[in-house]
Model the fold of this input.
Amino acid sequence: MTKPEDFYALEKPIAALKEQIDALLLAGEPGFKEKVAALRLEIETEWQKLQPRLIPSQIVQVARHPKRPLTLEYINALMTDFMEMHGDRRFGDDPALVAGLAFYKGQTVAVMGHQKGRTTRERIDRNFGQMNPEGYRKAYRVFREAEKFGFPVITFIDTQGAYPGIGAEERGQAEAIAFNLKVMSGLRVPIVCVIIGEGGSGGALGIGVGDQILMLENAYYSVISPEGCAAILWKDQSAVQQAAENLHIRAADLLKLGVIDKIIPEPPGGAHIDPETTFKNTDKIVHQTLTKLKAKTADDLVDERYAKFRKMGVYVVS
Amino acid sequence: MSSLWTRCNNCQRILYKEDILDNHSVCPECAFHFRLSASEWLAMLYDDGQFDVCDHEIKPQDPLNFVDSQPYHKRLADNQRKTSLPEAVVNGLGTIGGMRVAVSALDFAFMGGSMGSVVGEKITRAAERALAEKIPFIIVSCSGGARMQEGALSLMQMVKTSAALGRLEKAGLPFFSVLADPTTGGVTASFAMLGNLNIAEPNALIGFAGPRVIEQTIKEKLPKGFQRSEFLLSHGMIDEVVPRKNLRPYLVRALRLFLNKSA
Done:
């Protein structure tokens, strides 16, 4: 089987147009707005040609794009006064997860998300957004604070998966994730989860149980990475494309399966081409979602959340 | 070799099959624990080997039309034929030490005991049945994790089962997790680690990531005994390592203590 083209090669014309936009914005000369608008239209035209042709393994590349907006950028764009909370009070602090309190639309929320890092240095320091048990336990601490003080919880999901390391196993990676699943299922405040990039298996799910699961149009969410699946089921690393297709990892697939509740549209070219619009779209849907959830009683929230996950799965009774 | 004899996978000794069966499928020479089927687990744990089977009518589908080296629906049919089971878990209901208990046992012979929609649904139903009847719940895990062929639907079973156990806990009903070799991935990262007691068989492989994945990630050899029951015990992740012959009495005592019923 021939290897499909990299998304990074396919997006070159769009990336070039985006560079022109950036240059115009930087220079800020008279008439730049019209020129930018015209370039945006060109991007849209290019994207309309490209998007329908993208296969799942290329969507995974969009979701992993090095320029794709990261959790902290969403927090800074949507919220104010973010105060980060560190540490699990048991072992350490996990820089792969940022968590804390912030104001969203004038109200305190607990917010958290995987943070992959942008520069090489930061990526290494943040373990590429792959959490260790102390990260899940830090999240747990913040969930409890949110519940105590009645703050809604917003989580941003963007990870390849929980970290598979010796220390992670020694400190109970599985228990840390399992415990959060149980706690989030019963938490007596609204929880909105937003899958912004990579929804990597249990590592994503460990902060991914909510009343509403929102997902960026070009994010992916999967039980296993396409690479991992290819290695196990096909015993062939080049089967990534088939694995990605079979796993049904795109937002539209997951909406149909009932795994997610709503898709957040991305601007032409993907989130990284126009982060401002991405944040605006995200803000709008998160706000709508949270407004509806805040009208519910804690008992209703917990019952409806249970019922929502309770009905997931496909089987027959015969 | 005659069907009366078998070889121990561990010490390689040739053994008389009856001797192994009389010894709870544990090698009389080296104490290697042979893997049990779900039905064998239930028969071993319940009083006089007697129990009712529940939820047998729940059967799997192929919601993603998943095809790897063979189509998933064919894989399911083959495994059903091979194991005579509809899926990778059997739900039982009966008494242990005279106390009524729901027990779910995973069967590794059915697609590695993996959890797809049916395993998630059946575990959840068993937990809800325990809740309705106000009785304790025990799961015997033996599983490679979430079933890839049902994609994110399998992942969601982790939430569904953990949420059901959360309700059991809220109602003050005990849940014990018995971990057999191997228990990894999405099963460990959901119900298998949520017991009021987590109990493992000796030398069982228990972990989140598989040892090969970890080795490839860190590019180092793993320490001896890594991710084995005794390793988990020393790291505070499980309550006890219990040899199979002691398991039933152990569970009877645990049930009595948690239910506040002295003998």
